[in-house]
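Whether sequence alone determines local backbone shape is best considered at the level of individual chains. The sequence in question and its structure tokens are set out directly beneath this paragraph.

***
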Amino acid sequence: MQAWDVVIVGGSIASLRAAIAASDEGSTVTILTQSSTSAFVDDVTSCGLAASSGETNPSGHAADAHRVGAGLCEADVVTSSTNSAVPHLADLERWGLNLRRDRNGLPHLGQLPGQSNPRTASTGDSTRREVRTILEEQCIKRNIPRRGDIEILDIVHKDHDTTRGESDDGFDVCGLIALDIQSGEVFAIQAKAVLLAGSGFQSAWNGDGCGMGSAAHLFLKLGHYLSDLEFTSRHPLTVANTDLHIPLDVLGSGGVVNGPDGQPLEIDSGPDSLSREILSAGGASLDLTTISRDDSPWFANVAKTLQSRCGIDCSQQLIPIMPSVSTTIGGLPTDLSGNVCSFDWDKIPGLFAAGDAACTGLHGAAINSGDHLLGALTSGSIAGATAAIHAANSKHSGSGAISSMLTEAHHLHDSILANAGSEGVSPGHVQTQLSTTMQAHMGHERSAGGLGKALTAIEELSEANMVISDSSPVMNTELVTMLRTKGLVQVARSAVRAATERTESRGSHIRSDFPEADDEELHHSLQSSSYTGSLALRN
């Protein structure tokens, strides 16, 4: 059985940054990903990095985060993140990131929706790819192994052993049970710390398999609560009838969003507010003909993709857009140091989270432009370092618990394969029904009646007899899809319950049967910054 100080689950930018931080603290680290190590399925960054390098201090950045987050951001997390934005940008540049520059040689900063000042540094339409490549190179330099095509089945924990003088009021995370998709082997890994840094659960709406909520489901299986599942983030610049997301950075280089009447829409209130305005109008168009010749080379990939996939010449034609769910905000509740917490906010020893898998309190009720990438870098760096410190003060343990759960996982795996070909519904059918339900009742507006219908429909899906046709253990992607789909249904059910319980309109969560928070209430929230997060249990 392999044993590591820190095991990081997920192939995202947050996971890469966490691995670097943990390694720099002296830990042995490995990264496990569901897909191939070069895939981008865990990354949904839609624009560059927000950093107040052109401002006197980061206070304006912090104020914008609180405003767009509708008063539900955690003040300490916002302060820490916005203060670290410029150092993160400096690290990326030092590691080789080739940023856009202004005439003075400084990073070019674009002003995007929700920003009171130009604040977003980028590499045009390739920011996600470039940042990821830079971080992968840093992992290689540190000899951090990454293993792809690994499906995590369970988080293993051991009850505290009172005979050894330890506390009896919790449990330590001590390892993982996983499936090697290529070989079909079910195996165990022992770890002093486990850090979950995968994707959100946006596939519940999109049905595309990107963002299946695996980390959230693993946490639900432990019997714990998730936080703020009712909040989602929609990307306003999604090409209509496609899954093609145009980076928000085009709006900081002259791009214009026009309403159905041909007039430009306001973009001051944040990406989700812009998305709601477009959805309420029944659609909009993106005009990229106004981007200058100096700026257009930075968005050459956008132009090429629009031409090849949609037959649109963006230098001559308007682009029809219709917002889609790009990521989710809720997830595993974490404290300022990246420790995952239980319902009463006690730390769960050995368990950490970052990126879209975590609910850090940075985004509150909506994500501001440039803060998504900032949150991934900040939470990854902090959680990785904290996990390494925990590992340095811990010992490998829980061999008995790991062996027991490994045996259970083998039995479950064998039983699923033995039942292959029996009557039931396919995972694809369940995903289609789930996305239809979520789009209809958990869209940009929700109501008690609609949420009740959604919950009933999802309860039926959770009880459906899901089966597969392939009985081979080797490269059985159908089996993996079934496991992920079952987990996604459980997370979606918790999200609907969280939306039902929040009987107010706040940020990206709009209840058509309840009013939006008024200015006085929002001002009080911003002043008090009493972030607690809404919680939803698996049942």
The longest helix spans residues 477-501. The longest strand covers residues 186-196.
